[in-house]
Fold each of these.
Amino acid sequence: MTQQELEKYLWGAATALRGTIDAGDYKQYIFPLMFFKRICDVYDEEFEVALKESNGDAEYAAFAENHHFVVPEQAHWNTVRETTTNVGMALQNAMREIEKANPDTLYGIFGDASWTNKERLSDETLINLVEHYSQHKLNMSTVPDDKLGNAYEYLIKEFADDSGHTAAEFYTNRTVVKLMTMIMNPQPGESVYDPTCGSGGLLLNCALHLKEEGKEYRNLKLYGQEINLITSAIARMNMFLHGIEEFSIVRGDTLAQPAFLENDELKKFNVILANPPYSIKAWDQKGFTNDPYGRNLWGTPPQGCADYAFQQHMQKSLDENNGRSISLWPHGILFRDSEAIMRRKMIEEDLVECVIGLGPNLFYNSPMEACLLITNNNKPTNRKGKVLIVNALKEVKQEKNIAFLEQKHIDKIFNTYKDFKDIKTFCKVVSTDEILTNKGSLNIAQYVSNVNGDTQQITLKEAITNWDAESKKLKESMNDLFQILN
């Protein structure tokens, strides 16, 4: 199969579910089923190789050391395929048996979908799904890791398109992911962490970035935490299907129960990339005030907006010598009054290296404008006491109700970050003293509208456009304030 044929084949399973369950729930069933098929087909392939090596010794061929994952005979795809009644129970039992047989790697990876609920999934529907995936082998020789991994990412994108507003919980615009990875530039052997990892796109892209550059990617240490069970399972499957084995993705609430600890303190990482949930209200503000891990470095965020709780968690988790982070946020994090004290302290400590304003519609299913906040615990000498502020709001391709960055946009923004120089009407290097004079505001329009310090003549149309943009930001700020007050 070509890449396109593979994607069409894998997506075809979703058509069997249309009308039976909500589109947002497809991923709970399709991903585990596809992963189940992959594991069994690879197991069979490895069994045949071992059988030839041992001159037909089936007992030897079944030894665990000959396989990536152990698949008990009663839990094999072919056994389930023979089932015609209570198919959901057969699938559920098989998946649990495989998890038990591989406790260190696959425990919980198939999620908690309700396979036995016949009102949602009849035997006929499940038989159709199983038969659909039985049409082709998904072993390594037929579908290599790269090919299947790309198809898996395609499915994640398709499910995001069908999921409405919940898509942002597990999917980050992949063109933004690429830009974030290029800016962080993880190196072989480094540790990379995403505290709200969703389906694992940011982590995975770090490994693929090194692979594309011809560098050693298998010793990159990937860590992620995700609060949603099925999403964390999808992230783990994503790693395996791309051939990534050195990773640790844990389900849990990052703010309430951070998963990665060393000597009763937060584990430190070289690189952190994140697209945290923004402006969440349901979090333990009181607990954060007396945080046992000392994450309230700059203060406690308001109950109605936990953004700076995540930002401080990231800062506390960074390696003190060379830790660097990049996070995707709404613009409000740059100028909201309710967070001014915390933002000011972050700037006073000379942690902020760059702020990049991105265009609208890059948050999935949201028209909101996005920005990238980049911090560095060890700024180069020529960047100390300075912040590069980039206005890249126009560097975006709009397509219907979604936007993305074209390669030319990614290259322009990345090269601007790398060069760290003024470009008229696009970016400006600003001293931290100037930012602090402006009450710690990182509002991009304050700095980049007059890049070289000269007075610029603008047309009436431009003035109206600027006024509209500032009105929109004011409205966002007021909405944030109302959320906090509520």
Amino acid sequence: MRPFTILFLVAAVCGMFFAGFSTWDFVAHLDRDVHDVHCSFIPGLLASDTSASSGCHITLMSPYSSVFRASVWGGIPVALPGLAVFAFLLFRGLDMLLNRREDDKRATTFLVLAAALPALTSVGMGYLSIVELGAACKLCIGIYISSFVALAAAFGIRAQGVGEDMQGFGREFGLSFAEGVGFVLVPVLLYAVMAPDYSRYIGTCGNLPKPEDTNGVLLPIGQQASGKEAVEIFDPLCPACKGFEGRLAASGLESQLKRKALMFPLDNTCNWMVSNTLHPGACMMSEAVLCADTKTDAVIAWAFEHQDEVRTAASTNPDAAKDLVTAAFPELKACIGSPAVKSRLNKSLRYAVANQLPVLTPQIYVENQKLCDADTDLGLDYALTRLLAAPVAKKESK
């Protein structure tokens, strides 16, 4: 057995291990409950991380962690076909070893081509993680490293071969490619068939008993002037709210909603329903959003982009949030902290009380039907698609 062959087999096993553990992490959320997100190069060795701002949590809950989300609750995790591809690479490597084909140019050429697939996929996923998400998942990095090592080892195997006969490569390529498709297709189809059907929960999670906005506390957000009416319970410094907005935008369903936001800061400096401040500076930032008028979306986007900076600064300096946001939007300075905006924020909280809202963000109501809290992350596309398709309930005449 040659060193590059050993390296290839080890890389394939490691890739299976990391992709398998990542798939298991994803599948653990299919019960619509909160679970630990394990983030380690040696899964299970280090403490798990459920923080909504952690790299592993961000990547798991991102739109890129799975596909076909509108058809399957949570979608099919991309780690699953990754696991299947590494299993196929292991199968091909063992076949080449046991049948003594390390000098067969046809076998080694196909091995290089097969190993190129996870390597190229890793480049694309790595780009999305860094550029689009600004986060890194250690398990994902393990998959990337395994992919590149497998490709390098495949090149090494081919370079060390002494055979030159490529006759019949087209036929071998076709048969081997069909094997690879089977390796991927079978587990993906089984997953899709066995995935839970959660359509029974759509429209069963409650509504707003008093949805009328008599005090004008609901702020129009987004660009849609038409669509189904939606109310979002919102904290501009909430990482989960930021994640929700990203998933909603990626789903393409935002265009079917006419959205309004209710400010609900998880900060006890203004919100008496919160015993401990979860997001320092959220009260001040909520005031900034209420003051923004025509720049509401711009201020929210700025708050999302600077969440960590604002929360860290506000944890030691109560005025830091105002200083930071007014540096970006000087026109808000006179409004933030004024009696008028404080009264409006208080009325927002009173709206939450009147509608018996849980102390939780984000929440969303579409035509007064609540999207279940468990469906605001992985199940968003699946549940919201069905909620939007449901007939609008007729309003009772008074």
Amino acid sequence: MVATDDPDHAYWPSSPSSDTPFQNVNGEVQGDSHYWEVWHGRKPFTAYRGTFPRFQSEFGFQALPPLKTIQTYAEPADWNMTSYVMEHHQRNASGNGLMIGQMTDTFRTAKDFPSLVYLSMVLQAEGIRYGVEHWRRFPDRVAGALYWQLNDCWPVASWSSLDYFGRWKALHYMAKRFFAPVLLSILDDGPRMGIFVTNDATEAWQGTARWTLEMLSGEALASGEEAVNAAPLAATHVKALDFAEAIVADQIPGMLGGNRRDMIFTCELWQGNRLVARNIATFVPNKHLALVDPGLSIETTRKAAQLTIELAASSLARFVELELEGTDTVFSDNYFDIPAGRTAVITCPLPEGWDLRQARAALRVRSLRDSYA
């Protein structure tokens, strides 16, 4: 009927579809795919790496909305994942349980409900990041990815990255990084680390990748620097490192032992003197990292109508969250890592009528360790 009445336009029979109606609709040879085995099937995030669709047009993972949104429909007495109100404001009947199940695989038990909200948003963002970075390492095979979903039609726990009021979840911030035109990603596989740069631009990109195997406290155990010449519209495998190899194991005694909890692999992408991207990988689940108080130092300054926040850490600060209490401020970045000895410079609009003193008083900062300690 479409071909007869509108022969000038292509028709796609369904999503997903292999362009052969009702046959192998999620096939990876042609067409588009939906993948829900991580959410509905309760598979780990690593399951994404076993998929190579031509186009991943739908996949997702849920999170609670920010606490400020939850406060519009739930009293503090109902701040429990199995309360009537919390289960009513849930698009998927088993959604709250699925979130908690994956959360216990990844993080320590939250010390209170606000920490649980924070962990749910970080969990969602990490899951989607894991999938997108994998697919972007294979652009010759995977043409693109769309996560489900962008926004919400009511205040609710859902797969969205923007909640009903337009507030940004952690996923919306991380999407800016994992969908960046030039992407730095780490293929972590136990003691093996692979550094990749995906360049979606139509011109080559040149820069430098600097990597470090380090303790959480910042002590470098091994490091290196690699020139990057990322071809256009392609993924470039920059470096493969195996910290289980004998020569490395001799240099770093105990790498395969208990020290894994105290170590991270850090990689930064530089173009001249400009830091383009930073990524870290761990050798154990986040819940097993031997995190200590990151000793965050925070300096805030004002220039005209913009607030600048400079943060530094004496030990790894994982998934740093910024908030200006009483506002819905959107920061230049959020839910980011600060390895020991590094800094992060974040900006945001100064709320109308505010001065620097008010901004400093309203600034709230937390990281992963604060969710349980």
